[in-house]
Design a protein that fits this description.
The protein has five helices and four strands. By secondary structure, it is α+β, with helices and mostly antiparallel strands. It is elongated. It folds into two domains: about 40 residues, Arc Repressor Mutant, subunit A (Orthogonal Bundle), CATH 1.10.10.10; about 80 residues, 2-Layer Sandwich (Alpha-Beta Plaits), CATH 3.30.70.920. Helix 1 packs across helix 2.
């Protein structure tokens, strides 16, 4: 389902995605409206589920989490009940920071962060490969991150429109 957003909404979303700590006054200035309607719009975007939350980005390496890796997991059985059960297990593993169910040669891709190679190996051997229904696990250790952008592309934000722009991916 497409959500109808006008150009002001898009400007608000782009500014918040770039800096979630921006003040409402500055956000309103960037969106070209006054502060009270800006706050109302932000609240409406939150209540409408477009803004899901706010997070602080922390440099994991500065805190001693030096290993970032991906685990590609194939399951023995892909029934809905087994997929849901695996997803529930994944939510319990703190090493796994993000997980996607995918189509193709594997069933899940897990994005993992941990402090050492040994702790990652222990997670793979003792937890992941021993989990019921896991048939195969392949891993890739990262060398460096080459790009990090906010999730939603905002290529057309700021372009003049009729004030009733529909969501169109960049």
């Amino acid at each position: 389902m497409k959500v109808r957003l006008d150009s002001v909404d898009w400007k608000i979303l782009a500014a918040l995605q770039a800096n979630g700590r921006i003040t409402n006054v500055e956000l309103a200035r960037r969106a070209g409206i006054s502060a009270p309607p800006c706050l109302r719009r932000v609240r409406a975007l939150e209540q409408g589920g477009i803004i899901k939350g706010y997070r602080t980005l922390i440099d994991e390496k500065e805190l001693g989490y030096d290993l970032t890796a991906f685990a590609f997991v194939g399951l023995k059985n892909q029934t809905e009940a087994e997929l849901v059960r695996f997803e529930e297990q994944v939510r319990q593993w703190s090493v796994v920071r993000e997980a996607w169910m995918v189509s193709g040669e594997v069933d899940f891709i897990l994005f993992c962060i941990t402090d050492t190679l040994r702790s990652f190996q222990n997670f793979i051997i003792e937890t992941l490969t021993s989990a019921e229904n896991v048939e195969s696990v392949r891993t890739s250790l990262t060398i460096r991150q080459s790009k990090s952008e906010p999730r939603v592309p905002m290529a057309n934000v700021g372009a003049e429109d009729d004030g009733k722009a529909q969501f169109e991916p960049a």
